[in-house]
Amino acid sequence: MAIKTVAVIGGTGMIGKSLVQFLIKDPGVETIKLLVRRPMEKPHDKVEVKLVDFADRESVQLALEESEVIFCAIGTTQKNVKGNNELYRKIDFDIPVLAAKLWQEVGFTQFVIVSSIGAAANSKNFYLQLKGEVEAALIALQIPSLHIMQPSMLLGLREEKRPLEGFLQGTMRFTSALFVGSWRQYRAIEGTTVAKAMLQAAKEAKPGVHRYTFDAIKELAEKGI
């Protein structure tokens, strides 16, 4: 499927930045609406930087107008919200769910989001429970084509320094190969691979709800190379 106009939420993070670069290089994509909470420089002529108040429905709707596909890679950390789970929820749940709720008004028919392996609304882990609740809320909206990426640990560089994550990344690069059988889905994966898979999923435009773990993400990404 040819995609001309897309919107990206969370385009300044590890996966989001890679996704924006892939979209810029894609000759079929003409306009990339980059929804941000803080001012930033326009990275390319294809990109329209949209400064958005994500608590304002109208602000989000105006920024998304004419988009055929919404890509969402937004996410925060306990460090960034200083342990405030309410604020964490406002970012990781409220933002993607509000955007998705606008699909009928805006007209987009595809929503592609980064979630997590192990996401489950009944999980006792706050992060996995939140991701599971996001997935459930999106599915309930009956978006014609919903693609949910469920990676395990992400490998790649971030602007934000996360010493513990850096250590774990180094460890996982060597130990992931030991994860076999049903444990393969927990293998670490490059953020750029997830970004490629997101774009390919949108191009394939399969109707219904689709979840992708390690092998399916890799397979999608390889199709898009």
Provide tags for this entry:
two-stranded parallel ribbon, 9 strands, seven-stranded parallel sheet, 17% strand, single chain, alpha/beta
Topology summary:
Elements: E1 5-9, H1 14-25, E2 31-36, E3 47-51, H2 57-64, E4 69-72, H3 85-101, H4 103-106, E5 110-114, H5 126-140, E6 145-149, E7 154-155, H6 163-175, E8 189-190, H7 191-204, E9 208-212, H8 214-223
Parallel strand pairs: 1-2, 1-4, 2-3, 4-5, 5-6, 6-9, 7-8
Helix pairs in contact: 1-7, 3-5, 7-8
Structure report:
The protein has 225 residues and is α/β, with parallel strands linked by helices. Helices cover 41% and strands 17% of the residues. The chain has helices spanning 14-25, 57-64, 85-101, 103-106, 126-140, 163-175, 191-204, 214-223, and strands at residues 5-9, 31-36, 47-51, 69-72, 110-114, 145-149, 154-155, 189-190, 208-212. The strands form 2 sheets. A 7-stranded parallel β-sheet has the order 3-2-1-4-5-6-9, with helices on both faces. Strands 7-8 form a two-stranded parallel sheet. Helix 3 runs parallel beside helix 5 (126-140) and helix 7 (191-204) packs across helix 8.
